[in-house]
Amino acid sequence: MSFDLIVKGGRTVLNKHTVFCDIFVKNGKIALIKKPSKTTNTSSRIIDARGLLVLPGIIDAHAHFHLRLGPGRYTADDFTTGSAAAACGGITTFIDYTGQGPGKSLIKGLKDRVKEAAGHTYTDFSFHCMLTGWEKLEKPARQMAEIIKAGVPTFKMFTAYGARGLMASDAALFSALKAAGKLGALICVHAENGHIIDLLTERYAGHKGISALPLSHPASTETEAVYRVSALAASSGAPVYFVHLSAGGSANIVRTARTLGFKVMGETCPQYLALNHLRFKGKDGHLYSCCPPLRTRADNAALWRAAAAGELQVIATDNCTFTRAQKNAWGGDIRKLPMGLPGAQTLLATAYTLGVKAGHIKIERLVEMLCENPARIMGLYPRKGVIKLGADADFAIIDPQASRKVDWRTMSHNTDYSPWQGMKLYGFPKYTILRGEVIAQDGKLTNPKNPIGQFQRRTKPEIL
Ligand code: DUC
Ligand code: ZN
Ligand code: ZN
């Protein structure tokens, strides 16, 4: 049998273990995995992976590209630059969010977003369906069923940001969880107590500069919402997935809920694992603004512990890129400050360096959190997230000895800073491979004129 690609002799994270093997690819799929041998097949492209670490392609379960902020205003990374950054960072699939406006059906929101992305991405992609304004949605359960049939079994709700029309009441959350439970879907929740945040924002915004951000979004606002929504999920019988957990106390609630048998899962992000509120000091402090905000070193440590122990399931980016000019327009008032950080290109490198190299987490566990778990939870498994026969030939191949200093000037994000600027990181991929095609090599796209990413239909989420 002839193959299109052979990845030879790499140390490979396979079946939760690290082994040396040759991987044979045919028609974009993994066709054969065997012990390394000397035999070569000259008709195939061969990647010599000796000395390299072969991982499944990374799945970013939480990304925002080309996010509409208002009429004609968008985040800085569109699908082209965002997915280029993702590909150069080892991501082979990202999951973004649909748009939803008053009077727009859920399915129209999904179709519009797929149309915006299709033909413009270097990686595969999907969307979570935004589920806002539950009370005003016409036949919401029927609309959810339609979305699931279109290959999107995950929905996003918020417990905050009412002024932007995002906040759901407890009743709406409970009803949506009930509907999702019946349909085998998963509700993903941005959990922060919106009422308290609104109150504290009015108290501190306008005169406290960037320090108003942590003051108005204390860790307790997240932890309370995680507790409350876990209880709502438990009483509805449905699973829930918390996005971007930032506080050690929230991870403790997730652990307790899971110990009680509740179907609760949690995601965190490199910025919450490895950056802290001291970044807010200095004239560029506002460039680090995101919601929830950066917390303390104790929170970093607690999140790493929970990640390593399997109490949190996923590490994702919450990539939401702004330029300095966009951030600088805030005028010292956090109410006008765009929230979010670029992170797609640095996801693997930050998690590998600050997690594995720093001794917080084993590589096999990190691969679960970046690949297998998001694939299982988001309904992409076993096509994605794993190196096994019949899976898509998606790989992130790194040289564990090679480091690079982060410099936004050399990255594909459409912005002019990086929260990780100047940091020496290991784990930037030497090769990123999507369905058997090398899409990026040594930090550059291999074929910038050919964005081969495809929309991925997803199936029933697994509860981990
Ligand atoms: N927080 C979010 O919830 N979404 C995008 C960016 C951010 O900081
Ligand atoms: Zn969020
Ligand atoms: Zn987000």
What does this structure look like?
- The protein is built from 13 helices and 23 strands.
- It has helices at residues 79-88, 106-117, 140-149, 170-183, 194-204, 212-216, 219-236, 248-259, 270-274, 297-308, 324-328, 347-357, 363-377; strands at residues 5-14, 17-26, 29-34, 45-48, 53-56, 58-60, 63-64, 68-70, 73-74, 91-97, 124-130, 154-158, 186-190, 240-242, 264-268, 314-315, 319-320, 395-398, 403-405, 424-426, 429-434, 437-441, 444-445.
- Helix 4 (170-183) links the parallel strand 12 (154-158) and strand 13 (186-190).
- The strands form 5 sheets. Strands 1, 2, 3, 4, 5, 18, 21, 22 and 23 form a 9-stranded mixed β-sheet that branches. The chain has an 8-stranded parallel β-sheet with strand order 6-10-11-12-13-14-15-16.
- Helix 7 packs parallel to helix 8 and helix 8 (248-259) packs parallel to helix 10 (297-308).
- By secondary structure, it is α/β, with parallel strands linked by helices.
- It folds into 2 domains: 2-55 and 391-411 and 420-445, Urease, subunit C, domain 1, CATH 2.30.40; 58-377, TIM Barrel, CATH 3.20.20.140.
- The chain binds dihydropyrimidine-2,4(1H,3H)-dione and zinc ion (ZN) (2 copies).
- The site of one zinc ion has 3 residues, from loops.
